[in-house]
Design goal:
CATH superfamily of one domain: Glycoside hydrolase, family 65, N-terminal domain
Low-confidence stretches: 491-505
CATH architecture of one domain: Distorted Sandwich
CATH topology of one domain: Beta-galactosidase, Chain A, domain 5
Mean pLDDT: 95
Pfam families: GH94_b-supersand, Glyco_hydro_94
Keywords: Glycosyltransferase, Transferase
Structural class: alpha+beta
Radius of gyration: 28 Å
Strand order of the largest sheet: 1-2-9-10-11-12-19-16-15-14
Protein name: Cellobiose phosphorylase
Helix content: 25-40%
Organism: Lachnobacterium bovis DSM 14045
Number of helices: 20
GO biological process, one term: carbohydrate metabolic process
Distance between the termini: 42 Å
CATH class of one domain: Mainly Beta
Length: about 800
């Protein structure tokens, strides 16, 4: 069953029923202020940090699901309903939700009254705008009561969920005219507050939740709305909310609009006020004045749409495949932007409290984002580097507001340092900006400990060099990319401690995956050194890369595939000698992407083993056979039931690694076949199975061992987005930024006649036309730039004017 359809012209997904298999969400905001909004108007807003500066509450694990949001109640005689259906769930005569790029609209009808609500965050300001339009499509005069509703979070979302003994006494609000000021915490900080405003004279208000709903009621059946009269309650502690009441009279065919603003306001730090609860309302008044008319709001929405049109014009394809065009041109790039902004912090699967910005995660997210706004990618790289330790290791996460390492998660994930090299090289390849390497970055956010970004990369590289185990393979530490593969938690030697942060001196676990990662991005670091004329360092680093390749092929090869790791007792993991977990996806993908074994047949053998043992109709499973019992020596991976998450789930994040690997060995047919399996746009017809949004990639899909085989989870915030975009744009379509220019090296299905691509690169627009007359899968027969045949398939970025015409013939 389908629950909607794609509107490519407007770059929207149109949902035609509120009863989707799961809440299908969208993201509002592009810079500092963000909102999550579901297809029933659920969700919440925050400024910069979903944990520390959350404006409104959301209840995870609630029943009914997707409770709390921005709600508007319409009381039409005895009928009470919401344009987004929740929370009253009154049956609607019609319903439509359109999720666009940075905005969502809801259009519903009930009893000859049409309601349209548009929600978005403007480009330049910290406010969510809700424009609600009511139209009387009956032949009679309608007299209505309109009530708004949001529930304020007391800023720190984690404390808001737990510290009731304090929070029940701290909530403070103030109401002036049509503006509700939420000033809890202002007494402490004296520099920030939230507003909830409507551009209309109000007939009443409420700011106390229990008064609005009734103490034993819920937002689904609030006392105030049922009575049609607000109680003008002012919250003192307990649970503050914002609700406006407006009486509306509409003649037949008459419309009225109302603009609601939920905004974050902050005074300048130097501003002080005599009374701690008296706020400076000037920032709020300034914000309200900018969005008080329909014309102002419509202009801001058009600016947002233009912003996205311009961003997406930087990479745009035209192929014979409508679904591929839709994915590449709109939704995949959009998700890359969202994931860059959010990392893994705030979604309907991430509470926004447990995680900040991931060191590994954000470095990978850059791969799909850097072409959109390179300046923000540059800033992010420096933020990440500033949290690194002096020995080259790193905090696993940092907080987006404070930009300091997350002490609760800590460090010890030994793949993290290498991802900084990956993200930085991706930025330099995209921009040619080597000056970023000269930027001074702190260690552990300590202003007294600084070095250039280049030195940070050097220490990232050398951290792996100096942290190897008995097989010459990198120490895994707490874990590598697979956070649930914890191999240092048990050994045969009672009382033996495991060294995870220094050179091997005892039983320690090693990672073949990190070895492949080191080879892949070690090669890029070598090239970087060569570009900087650091020839001696380049030679020394290349020697370390070669040594690692030897260690992989000598100790990391199991006969038909690459071993995953060695545990603390030097027992192989991901080997035919294991009863369960004999083959893992990660080491196959990363080692082949690093071109280990391409020349001697190992790579082809490994990919054949993946196809034979890990492939399913919904994608490639992480490992097989699934673990059926808990293994202390493996850690968390075996705590999941078979088929879920890291225990033989289909991890969509690393499926692209296999797709990239298939292109490296020239298998265009196989690469595109696999690409489609985890792409939600190609799964729209199995939505009752897949369940998550048909426009957003998942982190994982249940594997064949799971009762819910094919079911998606953890949509939106996943490295799947960036890796899939890099895979399709750089490896399949083959338009790949490189240090020396734009490399064209497609690997496509043999039945593809060709395609066109517009690619903005280093200030120039490349119109690329690829033809495949002989229907090959890989190989560039000729390449012309502005009619001139090129000696290689790398286009020198100095060639041509602002617009460059590129003709590529495969063969």
């Amino acid at each position: 069953m389908k629950y909607g359809f794609f509107d490519d012209k407007n770059k929207e997904y149109v949902i035609t029923t509120p009863k989707t298999p799961l809440p299908w969400i969208n993201y509002l905001g592009s810079n500092d202020f963000f909102g999550i909004i579901s297809n029933t108007a659920g969700g919440y807003d925050f400024y910069k940090d979903a944990k520390l500066l959350r404006l409104t509450r959301y209840r995870y694990n609630n029943c009914p699901y997707d409770s709390n949001g921005r709600y508007y109640y319409i009381k039409d005689n005895e009928t009470i309903w919401n344009p987004g259906w929740q929370p009253t769930q009154t049956p609607l005569d019609s319903y439509e939700c359109r999720h666009g790029l940075g905005y969502s609209t809801f259009e519903s009808e009930k009893n000859k009254l049409r309601a349209k609500m548009t929600a978005f965050v403007p480009i330049k300001d910290n406010v969510e705008i809700n424009k609600l339009e009511l139209t009387n499509i009956s032949e009679n005069v309608k007299t209505l009561d309109l009530f708004s509703y949001v529930e304020f979070c007391l800023w720190n979302a984690e404390d808001d969920c737990t510290n009731f003994q304090r929070n029940f006494s701290t909530g403070e609000v103030e109401v002036i005219d049509s503006t509700i000021y939420h000033k809890t915490e202002y007494r402490e900080r004296r520099n920030h507050y939230a507003i909830y405003h409507v551009n209309h004279e109000i007939d009443g208000f409420d700011t106390d939740r229990a008064t609005f709903t009734g103490f034993y009621n819920s937002p689904a059946n609030p006392d105030v709305v049922k009575a049609g009269v607000s109680k003008n309650s002012v919250a003192h502690g307990w649970s503050p909310i914002g609700s406006h009441h407006i009486k509306v009279t509409l003649q037949p065919n008459e419309s009225a609009s109302f603009i609601f603003l939920l905004g974050y306001c902050k005074n300048k730090k130097e501003e002080k006020f005599e009374a701690p609860n008296v706020i400076n309302k000037a920032p709020a008044k300034e914000l309200i004045a900018k969005y008080s008319t329909d014309e102002q709001v419509d202009t801001a929405l058009n600016e947002l749409k233009t912003y996205w049109t311009n961003l997406l014009s930087k990479f745009n394809i035209e192929t014979g495949n409508e679904q591929l065009n839709r994915s590449v041109n709109i939704w995949n790039q959009y998700q890359c932007m969202v994931t860059f902004n959010m990392s893994r912090s705030a979604s309907y699967f991430e509470s926004g409290m447990g995680r900040g910005m991931g060191f590994r995660d954000s470095s990978q997210d850059l791969l799909g984002f850097v072409h959109l706004i390179p300046s923000r990618a540059r800033e992010r790289i420096l933020d990440i580097a500033n949290t690194q330790f002096e020995d080259g290791s790193a905090y696993h996460q940092y907080q987006p507001l404070t930009k300091t390492g997350n002490l609760n998660v800590g460090s010890g994930f030994n793949d993290d340092p290498l991802w900084l090299i990956a993200g930085t090289c991706a930025y330099i390849k995209e921009t040619g900006d080597y000056s970023i390497l000269d930027e001074e970055c702190t260690f552990d956010s300590d202003a007294n400990k600084k070095a250039t970004l280049l030195e940070h990369l050097r220490r990232s590289f050398n951290y792996t060099v100096t942290h190897k185990g008995p097989h010459g393979l990198p120490l895994i530490g707490r874990a590598d990319w697979n956070d649930c593969l914890n191999l240092n938690c048990f050994s045969d030697t009672p009382g033996e401690s495991f060294q995870t942060t220094g050179p091997s001196s005892g039983p320690v676990a090693e990672s073949v995956f990190i070895a492949g990662l080191f080879v892949k991005y070690g090669k890029e670091y070598v090239t970087l050194c060569q570009k900087l004329n650091l020839d001696d360092e380049a030679k020394a680093c290349q020697k370390e890369v070669d040594t690692m390749i030897e260690a992989i092929t000598t100790h990391g090869w199991d006969g038909k595939w690459f071993i995953r790791a060695f545990d603390a007792n030097s027992n192989p993991i991901g080997s035919h000698v294991n009863k369960e977990g004999q083959i893992f996806i990660e080491s196959q993908g990363m080692c082949v992407m690093a071109e280990v074994g391409v020349d001697n047949g190992m790579a082809l053998e490994a990919l054949n083993s993946v196809k034979e043992r890990l492939d399913t109709k919904y994608g490639i499973m992480l490992q097989q056979p699934a673990y059926t019992t808990y293994h202390l020596e493996l850690g968390e991976i075996s705590s999941y039931p078979p088929g879920y998450k890291e225990n033989a789930g289909i991890f969509c994040h690393n499926n692209p690694w296999i797709v990239c690997s298939e292109t490296i060995v020239g298998h265009g047919n196989r690469a595109f076949e696999l690409y489609k399996k985890t792409n939600p746009i190609f799964l729209e017809d199995v939505q009752d199975v897949h369940r998550t949004e048909p426009y957003a990639f998942c982190q994982m899909v249940a594997g064949k061992d799971a009762p819910s085989f094919g079911e998606g989870k953890n949509s939106w915030l996943t490295g799947t987005a960036a890796w899939t975009f890099a895979t399709i744009s750089q490896f399949i379509l083959g338009i790949k930024p490189d240090f020396d220019g734009l490399r064209i090296d497609p690997c496509i299905p043999s039945d593809c006649d060709g395609y066109n691509c517009v690619r903005v690169f280093r200030g120039k627009t490349y119109n690329i036309h690829v033809t495949n007359p002989n229907h090959v899968e890989k190989g560039v027969a000729s390449l012309k730039v502005n009619g001139t045949v090129m000696p290689s398939n790398v286009i020198d970025p100095t060639l041509g004017e602002d617009t460059v015409e590129v003709e590529v013939v495969l063969g």
